[in-house]
């Protein structure tokens, strides 16, 4: 059974930085497409960034140039470095693993990120 555990959220002022981590277990991590998603109050969950098994990355337009996704297969961990944070980045951030193409079948419980103005 896949288990994903996020950490690193918190409260930061606008313009600041946070680094999120997601530790995975129970899957062949190195072969998995991983992603970060977020959900703000009253809004639908949206994709933030994804990284393939060969480290091809994809970013939502609203984070391009500010956020960086990376992975360390030796630690079964995926990261999200968030710089130049804005109040509108406030959300619960979730880590997800793609079970098969197009299906994000495993999710963590999320970590809260709050950006104050």
Quick overview:
By secondary structure, the chain is mainly beta.
Write the layout of secondary structure elements.
Layout: E1 3-7, E2 10-13, E3 18-25, E4 34-39, E5 46-51, E6 57-59, E7 67-72, E8 77-82, E9 91-100, E10 103-107, E11 111-116
Parallel strand pairs: 2-11
Antiparallel strand pairs: 1-3, 3-8, 4-5, 4-9, 5-6, 7-8, 9-10, 9-11
Any overview of this molecule?
The chain is 0% helix and 56% strand. By secondary structure, it is mainly β. The strands form 2 sheets. Strands 2, 4, 5, 6, 9, 10 and 11 form a 7-stranded mixed β-sheet that branches. Strand 7 and strand 8 (77-82) form a beta hairpin.
Write a concise keyword list for the protein shown above.
about 120 residues; mainly beta; seven-stranded mixed beta sheet; 11 strands; globular
Strand content: over 45%
What class, by secondary structure content? mainly beta
Low-confidence stretches: none
Characterize the overall form: globular
**Quick check: average pLDDT?**
96
Write the H/E string, N to C. Answer: EEEEEEEEEEE
Largest sheet: 7 strands, mixed
Percent helix range: under 10%
- First and last CA, distance: 40 Å
Question: Quick one: how many beta strands?
Answer: 11
Number of helices: 0
- Spatial extent as radius of gyration: 13 Å
